[in-house]
Amino acid sequence: MSAPGLLLVNTGTPASPAVADVRRYLAEFLMDGRMLAMPFVARWLLVHGVILRTRPRRSAHAYAQIWTERGSPLLRHAEDLAAGLCAELGAAVAGVRVGMRYGHPSVARALGAFSRQGVDELVVVPLFPQYSAAAWASAFDAVAAAAARLPVVPALRFVPPFHAEPGFLDAAAAVARPHLAAAHAERVLFSFHSLPESHVRAQDRSGGCLLGDCCASLGPGNATCYRAQCFATARALAARLQLAPGTWEVAFQSRFTKHWVRPFTDQRLVDLARSGVTRVAVLSPAFVADCLETLEELARRGAETFRAAGGRQLVVVPCVNAAPEWVAGLAGIVRRHLRAG
């Protein structure tokens, strides 16, 4: 039996920071029913009639601030991770490819390349540590739909969310340690991507989601709850980093409305600065690769917000990206799934 292919899936990126490319990317992103859960006609009118009239120009400016000679940081880190995994896993896989849920290189393009290669089995890693329908399930949708269009549908094995995997947690802690040691931060903020409160309640199976202390531990009822998984990730990293109680907290960024999961990162940065905290370090363990949300929203605008409120220094710790510890950690996760197959 031939070795399976390994597909890494992340959210995606525009082809360039040009307004037209950003508009095209945002249209694909926002028209996903997993992203905006509303009837198609209403979603189309909102996206094309309202959001795409103004947001592409603002987003293009933000992307321009982080663009590199190799293009999008998110894509660059994904390609480096794929190369590292290819070297680490060797003949155990029939190659490692990157497919973006939105934009390019697309999931369909990656699956087509595997198909032409004669690969009839794929291990798929949605690169989202915590489960959410908007990210992980949407990646599942894209892979399944692209596979269904192939002449020969490959067997698919999905690696589940890895928020509790030692390979991920150990790598994130290893990357963070030197940055935290240099930062001398008075407070460490674990900043996760926010979601609509309705999405979080829908993923909770306990029937008693309060978006509060119910996330203090994980159990059968809230095992698939995004917010509870975020708090579990933060607790596990705080333990690995030996952060004392009261020196760290959890917040949520990138919110669109007041009905998204709280507390909001930007507001907490203001509150901390006004309370006399002068040095803050931010970790973003909902992301495995530095991207617009970490490099522009946190490291640029977040730092400006913190300083304007009276803070002195905001240090944003890099994501695991393609760090050797993460290449080894993810390779270990993949090997376990290969053996299970």
Describe it.
This protein has a 4-stranded parallel beta sheet, with helices on both faces. A 4-stranded parallel beta sheet has the order 6-5-7-8, sandwiched between helices. α10 (292-308) links the parallel β7 and β8 (313-316). It folds into 2 domains: 5-161 and 324-340, Rossmann fold (3-Layer(aba) Sandwich); 166-316, Rossmann fold. It has helices spanning 19-30, 40-66, 73-89, 107-116, 133-148, 166-183, 197-203, 226-240, 265-274, 292-308, 324-340; strands spanning 5-13, 96-103, 121-126, 155-158, 187-193, 248-253, 279-283, 313-316. 49% of the residues lie in helices and 14% in strands. It is built from 11 helices and 8 strands. With 341 residues, it is an alpha/beta fold.
Gist of the model:
This protein is of the alpha/beta class and 341 residues long. It folds into two domains: 5-161 and 324-340, Rossmann fold; 166-316, Rossmann fold (3-Layer(aba) Sandwich). The chain contains eleven helices and eight strands.
Name the helicity range.
40-55%
β-strand percent reads 5-15%
* SS summary, helix count: 11
Cα-atom Rg, whole angstroms? Answer: 20 Å
Quote the average pLDDT. 93
| First-residue to last-residue Cα separation | 12 Å
